[in-house]
Amino acid sequence: MSEFATPNDERNWAMYCHLSALAMFIFPFGNIIGPLILWSMKKDHSALVDREGKKALNFQISMSIYLFVSAFLIIIGIGILLLIALGLVNLIFVVMAVVKTLTGEDYEYPLSIKILN
User: Fold this and answer.
1) What is the rounded CA–CA span in Å between residue 74 and residue 76?
2) Contact assessment for residue 14 and residue 46, using Cβ atoms and an 8 Å cutoff
3) What is the dihedral of CA 61, 28, 69, 97, to 10 degrees?
4) What is the pLDDT of residues 35-91, one digit of tens each?
5) Please, which residues have CB within 8 angstroms of residue 38's CB and are 6 or more apart in sequence?
6) Which pTM was predicted?
7) What is the Cα–Cα distance from 79 to 56, expressed in whole angstroms?
């Protein structure tokens, strides 16, 4: 039931699901809103986009939970370091997911809580 002209188009949309998480650097909760919008638009048209969109959402929801906990830990002093580390980890893992998706390889985010199955 794919509406995509080529498998390349399908991979591109799957990649956009991961890449849209970087919207967090533009507006609050963009890391969840971006993948959620793209995934909900294309999930019924492609199993690949459905799978990759869920992975992106699971990871970004997990990272948001970790960021909130880290923000709370600012009180005892380690929160700032954790926030910086989580920001870098998020960026690195998103870039890795984008590259793997474009090359057709499967990528599982580390530290991701499986919320959507």
Assistant:
1) 5
2) yes
3) 40
4) 999 999 999 999 999 999 999 999 999 999 999 999 999 998 888 999 999 999 999
5) 13, 16, 17, 20, 49, 53
6) 0.89
7) 24
Q: How far apart are CA 99 and CA 89, in angstroms?
A: 15
Encode 66-116 in three state secondary structure: HHHHHHHHHHHCCHHHHHHHHHHHHHHHHHHHHHHHHCCCCCCCCCCCCCC
* N- to C-terminal Cα separation, the chain: 20
Task: Please give the radius of gyration of the chain, using alpha carbons only, rounded to the nearest integer.
Answer: 15
Give the position of tokens 């920001």: 87
Q: Which two tokens stand for residue 36?
A: 């959620």
Tokens 């954790």 correspond to: 82
CB of 60 closer than 8 Å to CB of 70: no
Distance CA 49, CA 14 (A): 5
Residues in the chain: 117
